[in-house]
Amino acid sequence: MMERNKFHPRPSQELCPFEVVEWEKLKTKWNCTDPADYHCLPDQYNIPGQICVKPHWVLKNYCPIYNTAAAKIDLLPCDLQYGACSDKDYRSNEVFRYSACLNKTEIYKESSTLQPEPPILPLPLMAGIVTVVVVLCLLLLAACIIHSRRRRRRGKKTEYNHQLQPLLDQSNIPVGLKKVMDDLERGVFSSSKFYEHAIGVLDIHGCVSLIGPPGSGKTLTAVQLAIRKYRGGQGGMSRLIVYHTVKELTETEPPDGAYIIVDDWLDQYMHYPIMLEEDKKQLDQFYDEYIKIKKVHIIFTAQEDRWKMFNHDFSKCALFVNDSLLTINSKEFKNTELKSIIHNNLSVKETHMETKLQNKVEEIMLELKWEEEFSFPLIVNVICVNRRLAGSLGLIIKDGFTSTLKQFFDNWSRDTDMDERRSFCILVFAAFLGGKVNLSNFKSQMTGQVYDRLCSEYACEKYVEKSSSKGQEIFEDEYINSKGKKSDEQPIISDGTEDISKQNSKQVNKTETSLEEAASVETLLQKNQRLRDCLFKVRGHEEDPVFVFQHNALQRCLLQYIIISKKEKFFIENASIEVLWKNCWIEEGIGRKFCAMISDKVIASPVGLVIIPTKALTLLAERIYSETKGFIHPQWSRHVFMNHKTFQETWKKVVKKNSREELS
Q: 401-413 vs 552-574: helix axis angle to the nearest 10?
């Protein structure tokens, strides 16, 4: 039987049809499982053929071909001398509308050379040969069936393991990106029209920029694009390299065939805008040396509001021509794409959910609203990871995700259980350190003091190394399984009928745990369910385990919560210098004095940054000065805060005051 998902050349002297009636006839005869998968198009040798394959988006003035060596659809420029080309993007299964894509195909020629007839073997010998062939075929068929069943049992996760194995071993993958890798490995990624379009752009231009709001899936899509290219037959030679700045990109020579992601690369210019002019020259040079000749492929990701601020500065850079700029926005996703995102996230949960309940939850989750800090894909992912938020689906739909998340922090910080409050301190500690934490941070003389102050602020004793499992008892009464009984297994997502306040009322009023019974930091990081739902343990750091936030947006939301609930003084005194420099913004706005043509423009408060009110500028200046003891980071003079008139004046006063005190 003919395999429909393999490319089969058309019979001799027959081209692919140019009009819809003939196309539909062939599609009916070919009988793909999904009729939309039917394609009749040329291969890389211009030989027309038929195949069942998922349709891809084709850019205007391009034609699809099926690359049999890579087993995928590729794109080639359309030549008007052969007929009509498209003037807009289209699906590859509609190629019959554009005759120039099909009119230049070579006719597949079957060999007509007469071969001498082979000698006729004696009947007994022929029967023996036939028997051996039949037995071998049966053995081969049995082996294929066994192999197929084993693959089905391993399922989707095994497939992603195979795809990611050459990438996960790369030592230059940032710690913060490991959560994205884990999501891909578990099969969270959901294909979309946007993704298929990005494939075509990357193939043609060698570069693509993915622009969108926080949590829209930019980084996840970028890594998936690189994985797809690896699967395209690079033979293990391709490497995934991830950077965050242009300096990182240009200071080392990339290996041939590399796929480079420059993630959230515009963030650095928020605080060091003076670096723009230097980096523009470097990017132009990088394009000429590597991208123009397709030596490497590069994918940029940028937050939408950052791109709006800086797009003018890069308008003449060849890396950012209009065709290579793609905006991803879940507001524009079709209902089927939203359902796919929900289904994929629910399917990879450790807890198995009855089909009827899962269908109900999927329908409820479609009502989730997009928010400035949290796009739809991120909200779904966080809910599916965090059990308490999962049990508060109804409240999230009613009050919004950000509001519910702040209530979640409120209840956690005021929990009557000592280990729970200490766990919240650990989460705040991780946020203050820049989004990641390891055990050595608690033992360090400098950072350890910060953790002690947090424990004091939230009225919980300092941790001790003697561990206890009692800190987990609170969770037993907090979730109910679908039959209304206490579950011994992992809790499931509710259908939206519970909220955090109701969950909180179920907690056992335990007396504060004594110092001897307090769980150690390591135990809490490994076992406390709330912490596990918020912090992701990075693999490969067994000696000193590293934990990072499930998503940067969670860290940003927590920082904003802290400065509001504990005020500016507490925030400024305990957050690391890195957080103060990279995650904060001054209330009044900052004039852009680094570019003459727009020197009077004021940057609005960027999405996701913590706003420091002008009344707290003296505190901010004193903290920065005291941390560095007068020896400021070489880049400090170039920091955007130094363009703020009020801060500049405050800084001079602080320096002058401390200089006098040091002299005296």
A: 50
Q: Please name the residues in contact with 527: beta carbons below 8 A apart, sequence gap of 6 or more.
A: 469, 471, 472, 519
Per the CB < 8 A criterion, the answer to whether 297 and 227 are in contact is no
pLDDT in tens, 221-230: 998 888 776 5
Q: Give, as one character, the DSSP assignment of residue 472.
A: G
At 71, is the pLDDT very low, low, confident or very high (cuts 50, 70, 90)?
A: confident
In terms of average pLDDT, the best of 11-15, 162-166, 489-493 is: 11-15
> For residues 62 and 76, what is the distance between their CA atoms, to the nearest angstrom?
5
Neighbouring CB atoms inside 10 A of 459's CB total: 11
Spell out the long-range contacts of 524-527 with Cβ–Cβ below 8 A and sequence spacing 24 or more.
524/419, 524/422, 524/423, 524/426, 524/463, 524/471, 525/426, 525/439, 527/469, 527/471, 527/472
Yes or no: say if 479 and 500 are a contact pair by the CB < 8 Å rule: no
User: Of 566, 575, 591, whose CA–CA distance to 643 is shortest?
Assistant: 591
Total Cβ atoms within 10 A of residue 76? 16
Rounded CA-CA distance 470/474 in Å is 8
Nearest 5 degrees, angle CA 122-CA 128-CA 129?
Answer: 90
175-328 to CATH, choices 3.40.50.720, 3.40.50.2300, 3.40.50.300, 3.40.710.10: 3.40.50.300
> Which pLDDT value is given to residue 450?
93
Cα 84 from Cα 97, distance rounded (Å): 8
Phi, psi of 327 (to 5 degrees): -105, 125
| pLDDT surpassing 90 at residue 605 | no
Residue with tokens 């992601």: 261
pLDDT (average), residues 459-476 = 42
pLDDT at 496: 46
Percent of all residues in the chain with a pLDDT value above 90, rounded to a whole number: 30
pLDDT at 113 exceeding the cut of 90: no
How far is it, in rounded angstroms, from Cα 335 to Cα 83?
A: 37
From residue 204, alpha-carbon distances to 122, 143, 292 in Å are: 59, 41, 11
User: Of 490 and 551, which is predicted with more confidence?
Assistant: 551
Helix H segments across 64-177?
123-168
Q: How far apart are CA 329 and CA 312, in angstroms?
A: 21
Strands (E), 546-609: 546-549, 584-586, 590-591, 602-603
List of residues 6+ apart from 106 with CB closer than 8 A: 42, 45, 46, 47
**How distant, in Å, are the alpha carbons of 102, 426, 479, 555, 565 from that of 412?**
63, 12, 16, 15, 13
For residue 428, give Cα distances in angstroms to 175, 374, 378: 19, 20, 21
Mean pLDDT along residues 370-388: 88
Secondary structure (3-state) at 59: coil
* Per-residue exposure over 605-627, b if at least 16 CB sit within 10 Å of its own CB, e if not: eeebbbbbeeebbbbbbbbbbee
Domain ranges of the chain: 8-101, 175-328, 398-555, 577-663
Q: How far apart are CA 558 and CA 279, in angstroms?
A: 32
How far is Cα 129 from Cα 132, in angstroms, rounded to an integer?
A: 5
Place of tokens 């980084």: 219
